[in-house]
Amino acid sequence: MKTLHIRDGLVAQQVERFVWEIPPQGEMRVPGRIYTDTLGIKGLIEEVRQDKAWSALDQVLNVAALPGILSASLAMADVHPGYGFPIGGVGAFDLQEGVITLAGVGFDINCGVRTLRTTLHRDEVEPQKERLADALYRMVPAGLGSTGNLRLSLDEMDRLLVQGAQWVIRRGYGLPEDLDNIEDRGAVAGADPETVSRKAKERELEQIGSLGSGNHYLEVQWVQEIHDPEAADAYGLYPEQILISIHSGSRALGHQIGRDYLKVLDAASKKYGIPIRERDLVGAPYDSPEGRRYLAAVRCGINGAFANRQALAHLAREAFHQALKVRPDRISTLYEVGHNTAKVEEHEVAGTRQPVLVHRKGATRAFGPGHPDLPPAYREVGQPVLVGGTMGTGSWILAGTQKAEAQTFGSALHGAGRILSRRQAAKQFRSDSIVEELGRLGTLVRGHSRKGIAQEAPGAYKDVDRVVEIMTRAGIVRTVARVRPLICIKG
């Protein structure tokens, strides 16, 4: 196995073909473990050597120095720099000695993906995709500052922050059976609206049922390849089937919670002697008043995102009905999973099963076969892992594995991973050219912002097939189906 020099005696050692570790040095309490190939680790090392303002590898090492971290500071194959905590990063913490950190959740709390199955075949939609694209564009609010049709009072917002998707369904947005295939059934326990500022709630009052901007999207997709027939059958997938994937988060609610607690956790870091290596890597001990309060607010943000995607799923069903006369009950939820979260889960640590606090920042839960938290229909094959690619390539539906539970606290990648910042992409790509080229490839793009389309150009991202292959060959996930976009609605 190889050893690569990073700097100042710091090395990366290949411990498995697609797993590299950086042994603890200095203030690191655990190794840094990166799921990548030789080309990927060399690229991460080059970022460090170039002394860039942000380096994903340096952020992995910073997380490894946090109090109470368990096993390793983990990075998935889609890793790239974030605010303090790498995107594609995972860190699990002991409940007595460990911390909760703002950077490990971020400002778009519970950003995630819901994928819906339809009973439609690609041939049924292809001739009418212009009509469908127009209906989705009209009916699904998107873009910076976009607002939805579901308007709430502050009292109603408090109930939504506790009940999540369940509250939205009670208002007539969606189907009760949707809850069966949503992570945590669409609401986590322990959310306390009293920990969320009035400003955060007010900013969210008109945003439930809106996509937002950035990398958020609604895609109509078709199943291009089936790789695991058994899992595909359990998930209700078949070749040429039409799917709908919704990528969105907690909107202004999560952003304001992050802004509100940045100062709180900065003060807590100083109070409890937690080292601050980047501004957003502030935190508090899990078992402290500040830590418990922040986690309760994060749980509100998680439930707000579940509610938002539930409302968006309802709007997507309505658009399909309006354009194609498809009944809502012909569109069912395959699965929904978040990828910016902090959750208390049970995992095995040093041979003992115990509750730990798992931060997943741009990383998806990936429980393996037999896990009791999975829906009965999926329990034998493992949890669906929904990985978004790009408008020009495709996305993947994967399955979690028991090796993921053993090595990554049941976590996997969440997307392709950026190689260009949004600013770099906007300078390099033109929206008109992107829309024209994707149209030739069979994908209709409807964007609410020309700049947003350029920022999300396929060339701004890593090769999603490559990062999926790395995680698959490392044994963390299994490939189930590859899907291609037919229509993409962007903010």
Outline of the structure:
With 491 residues, the protein is of the alpha+beta class.
Commentary on this structure:
By secondary structure, this protein is α+β, with helices and mostly antiparallel strands. It has a domain of 257 residues: Alpha-Beta Complex (tRNA-splicing ligase RtcB), CATH 3.90.1860.10. The protein contains 15 helices and 20 strands. The strands form four sheets. An eight-stranded mixed sheet has the order 1-2-3-4-5-6-14-13, with helices on both faces. The mean pLDDT is 94.
Descriptive key words:
alpha+beta, eight-stranded mixed beta sheet, 28% strand
Proportion of beta-strand residues: 25-35%
Note poorly predicted spans: none
CATH class of the domain at 112-144 and 212-252 and 308-490: Alpha Beta
CATH topology of the domain at 112-144 and 212-252 and 308-490: tRNA-splicing ligase RtcB
Give the strand tally. Answer: 20
Radius of gyration: 21 Å
Helix content: 25-40%
CATH architecture of the domain at 112-144 and 212-252 and 308-490: Alpha-Beta Complex
| First-last Cα distance | 45 Å
Order the strands across the largest sheet as they lie in space: 1-2-3-4-5-6-14-13
Within CATH, the superfamily of the domain at 112-144 and 212-252 and 308-490 carries the name tRNA-splicing ligase RtcB
The biggest sheet, with number of strands, parallel, antiparallel or mixed sense and barrel status, is: 8 strands, mixed
Mean pLDDT: 94
Structural class: alpha+beta
Estimate the global geometry from the Cα principal axes: globular
Q: How many individual helices?
A: 15
